[in-house]
Specification:
The complex is a heterodimer of chains A (167) and B (146).
Chain A: H1 5-27, H2 30-46, H3 58-76, H4 94-112, H5 116-127, H6 132-139, H7 143-166
Helix pairs in contact in A: 1-2, 1-3, 2-3, 3-6, 4-7, 5-7, 6-7
Chain B: H1 6-14, H2 18-29, H3 33-38, H4 41-57, H5 92-108, H6 138-145
The chains are: A mainly alpha (167), B mainly alpha (146).
């Protein structure tokens, strides 16, 4: 089934923000993430004939292309994801807000410190909430590897958060 | 005569060392991925909330993809790549000329033995071969000329 312009425009509106967030979390570069989102959709539109709905969803296809762009970026520069804390819109109270910010900061730092392969799996599986099968397709690795990396990521993050809670 | 207890021997052969036992016990008691996921919901919720906040703040420009439209940049906007001049190496002609000049100069130099009144003690010797220039072989002549 060929993607029509109407389908594609709908998918652009649905996924552009999500994929921009993915780029940001992968590289930590907000400007690059914004540029690459536009570049990605331009490429997807040019190659829409290659999309085969029988092989996977549009999201899988899109994230696969997005991941390849990230990999190219890794090659060009030594990308280390930076902090991407955003200011919240509503502030409940100063103490709560401080605690929440600190927790978030520790968590972001923990995610950032994960090895590349483990972080990619964690972001796709638990932040982008994609099924294990799709993550395996996007990264081109077996499902067993996805599970073991997810296990490593969760164990590491859990340990770090427990340390933070005990301090 | 030693009577071996075969049953005891086989038990010993398959027995785990204490550190192996610790490893397998820890492995057996380790939570499954599903259990780990269930126990990580608190920080997963923080990350997902952060994701939603970030995603909502992105200013994604309105774009409309139209069938048949080219998404390539028009030629007028394309940036011309700077012309890169090829790096010039040593021309083979120059190399050939240099070698020829070496031969000509080498053979045109007078040999030590041809000089009137030259003595053997004054001859320049080839330190590697221990041969004198008086032998006049081509290699020595080249060496002197270059």
């Amino acid at each position: 089934m060929r993607l029509t312009a109407d389908d594609f425009n709908r998918l652009y509106r649905e996924y552009a923000r999500r994929v921009q967030g993915f780029f940001l979390r992968m590289t930590g570069d907000a400007v690059w993430a914004e540029d690459m989102t536009q570049e990605l959709f331009t490429r997807l539109w040019s190659n829409r004939d290659n999309f085969d709905a029988r092989q996977g969803t549009f999201a899988t296809w899109m994230y696969h292309a997005a991941y390849n762009l990230c990999k190219n970026e890794y090659r060009h520069r030594d990308v280390v994801a930076q902090t991407y804390d955003e200011e919240p819109a509503a502030v409940p109270s100063v103490a709560e807000e401080l605690e929440r910010r600190e927790r978030r900061s520790v968590l972001n730092e923990a995610v950032r410190s994960l090895p590349d392969g483990v972080r990619e799996v964690f972001l796709l599986r638990y932040v982008e909430e994609l099924p294990i099968h799709d993550v395996a397709l996007i990264l081109g690795i077996p499902e067993g590897t996805v599970k073991s990396r997810a296990y490593t990521a969760l164990t590491t993050l859990k340990e770090k958060m427990e340390q933070f809670n005990n301090e | 005569m030693i009577i071996r207890n075969k049953e005891k021997d086989s038990r010993e052969a398959t027995a785990y060392r204490p550190e192996e036992l610790d490893f397998y016990r820890a492995e057996a008691s380790a939570p499954s991925l599903e259990a780990l996921e269930a126990g990580s919901l608190d920080f997963m919720a923080i990350l997902r909330q952060q994701r939603d906040e970030e995603n909502a703040q992105f200013a994604v420009p309105e774009r409309t993809f139209v069938e048949g439209d080219s998404v390539e940049m028009p030629k007028s906007q394309k940036v011309e790549k700077p012309v890169r001049l090829p790096r010039r190496g040593v021309s083979p002609w120059w190399l050939a000329a240099a070698v020829t000049a070496g031969f000509v100069i080498g053979f045109s130099m007078p040999r030590a033995t041809e000089k009137p009144g030259a003595e053997a003690s004054l001859m320049v010797t080839d330190s590697l071969q221990g041969r004198s220039l008086a032998t006049g072989d081509v290699n020595t002549a080249l060496l002197v000329s270059l």
